[in-house]
Write a structure and sequence with these properties.
alpha/beta, Aspartate Aminotransferase, domain 2, four-stranded parallel β-sheet, 12 helices, globular
């Protein structure tokens, strides 16, 4: 059996008949940037995510950068970030001139540990950036309480968790202004790169829209020094269609995860993802940990099963951040996760037979 790490086959089949007319509309209208399709998707996604506003942008990194810029965060400021996130979260902070301040996750959930945040707050701290990693919503109530206590902004990085909840509230709807990604591999993915900003604050929404469009809210008149980061009409039209399928696709991912959990519990030294009390996950990734990670990955590859490592080197040890002078051992939980984690296939269309094959192959590795 040959099982890729990720397949778009089922998702594409679900929407293909709707995508082709959308492309024809795009061609016939002759309006390609910030037109009716973008406005339509922005309204739909804001409503879906239970926020007042959504601004489409070029990608998820730009969404975070613009969100931070909209808050006026820049040189001399600090932003608290997870130590184990994808580097984009840190890069957004760096690109506005601020400093990322890492805080370790709970090793059981992989999300930032709210109990460790307070100790990282200084007079320079301006915001907390919780990252809803692998599909699970962070423990947002505690994070928002800390933000209120210290008068800090919250900018959620919701690139991996569209549809996940904490105590019944959706990821991407807690923060003052938040960024998400529609990179093709995401639960809600475009056919190219795309991203969005969500907020309940009209002023921040207006500021974000101005920044994404060269700093202009009126054509050829520029109030501020902005950037060019705009969601195009074609991707907006496709995303509107795919948004209608997201609940079903997320439910399929949850089913895959539940079956994995049932079949793999108690297998060797395998550690499975846990959910924080009150949190749900849409399982953008299904991550397991083992001290024999590299050998297990090689075994699965030989048996035709694709896997990936998210992520093999945490941000504080990347060459890009050598200027922060972190060394091995500074963030041991992030390093432990990086050294032991392995992502198994999880996507709509992955069959029960395939999940059983993957699980039995993992069990065979430990028996061998």
């Amino acid at each position: 059996m040959n099982i890729p790490f990720l397949s778009f086959k089922q998702m594409n089949a679900d929407v293909k008949a709707e995508l082709l007319p959308s492309f024809e509309t795009f061609i016939d209208k002759g309006w390609y940037v910030l037109g009716e399709q973008v406005k339509k998707f922005e309204q739909e996604y804001a409503a879906w995510n239970t926020t007042s506003h959504c601004a489409g942008v070029a990608n998820g990194l730009d969404a975070l950068i613009i969100a931070l810029k909209s808050l006026g965060i820049g040189e001399g400021d600090e932003v608290i970030v997870p130590s184990n996130t994808y580097i984009a979260s840190w890069l957004a902070v760096s690109y506005v001139g601020a400093t990322p301040v890492p805080v370790e996750p709970r090793i059981s959930t992989y999300n930032i540990n709210p109990q460790l945040i307070e100790a990282a707050i200084t007079s320079k701290t301006k915001a907390i950036m919780p990252v809803h990693l692998y599909g699970q919503c962070c423990e947002m109530d505690a994070i928002m309480q800390l933000a209120d206590k210290y008068n800090l902004y919250v900018v959620e990085d919701n690139a991996q968790s569209q549809g996940a909840m904490y105590n019944g509230k959706l990821a991407g709807s807690f923060g003052h202004i938040n960024g998400t990604s529609f990179y093709p591999g995401k639960n809600l993915g475009a056919y190219g790169d795309a991203g969005a900003i969500t907020t309940n604050n009209q002023e921040l929404f207006n500021q974000a829209c101005t920044i994404r469009n060269y700093g202009s809210s009126k054509k050829y008149y520029n109030e501020i020094k902005g950037i060019n980061s705009r969601l195009d009409e074609l991707q907006a039209g496709f995303l509107s269609i795919k948004l209608n399928h997201l609940h079903n696709w997320n439910a399929q991912r949850v089913h895959v995860a539940e079956l994995y959990h049932q079949l793999l519990s108690g297998t060797g030294d395998l550690i499975l993802t846990e959910l924080a009390t009150g949190a749900t996950s849409v399982f953008h990734l299904y991550v397991v940990r083992t001290q024999r990670r590299d050998a297990l990955q090689q075994w699965l590859t030989e048996k035709g099963i694709g896997t990936l490592i998210h992520y093999p080197l945490p941000p504080h040890l990347q060459q890009a951040y050598k200027d922060l002078n972190y060394t091995t051992g500074d963030f041991p939980i992030a390093e432990e996760i990086a050294n032991t984690c392995l992502s198994l296939p999880v996507y709509p269309g992955l069959s029960d037979d395939e999940i059983n094959y993957i699980s039995q192959t993992i069990k065979a590795f430990y028996h061998a």
